[in-house]
Amino acid sequence: MRAFLKQISLFVMVGCAAAATHWAVAVGCVEAFALPPLAANLIGWLIAFLVSFTGHYRLTFRLSPTPWTIAFRRFFLISAAGFAINESAYAFLLHTTDIPYDLLLGLILVALAFATFIASRLWAFRHKSAA
């Protein structure tokens, strides 16, 4: 149980770093380059993906016997699926609510964090002979 709690703590720390990166890059792209929020969200996700995978591979799931190449592909699929949900929800809510784009993005990033942990723990970083 102690190891699981440590793993959750590491996941939260890495996830917060990746979410902060995603948010900061996306908001920075909107503010500095006048990109539309949805395009900025894509750029933020791509950069945050690298932060997230590296942190989870080296910290959260460092004891996993899964080779990094397999874990990378699996984690990319999980992250891309999460991003598809993120982008869809973000597009819908940007057009149907008056919530500021930056606050809305933050709320969506937090909402998807739990599902990412479960999928990562049970599939992306689990040793499995077939990719």
Summarize the entry for a quick read.
By secondary structure, the protein is mainly α. The chain has four helices and no strands.
Average per-residue pLDDT, rounded, comes to 91
How many domains comprise the coordinates?
A: 1
Biggest sheet features: none
Radius of gyration: 15 Å
The sequence of SSEs as H and E is HHHH
Strand content: under 5%
Keywords:
131 residues, mainly alpha, 4 helices, 83% helix, elongated
Question: Any overview of this molecule?
Answer:
The protein has 131 residues and is mainly α. The protein has one domain. The protein contains 4 helices and no strands. α1 (2-33) packs antiparallel against α2 (37-60) and α1 (2-33) packs antiparallel against α4 (101-124). The two termini are 28 Å apart.
How are the elements arranged and paired?
Blueprint: H1 2-33, H2 37-60, H3 68-96, H4 101-124
Helix pairs in contact: 1-2, 1-4, 2-3, 3-4
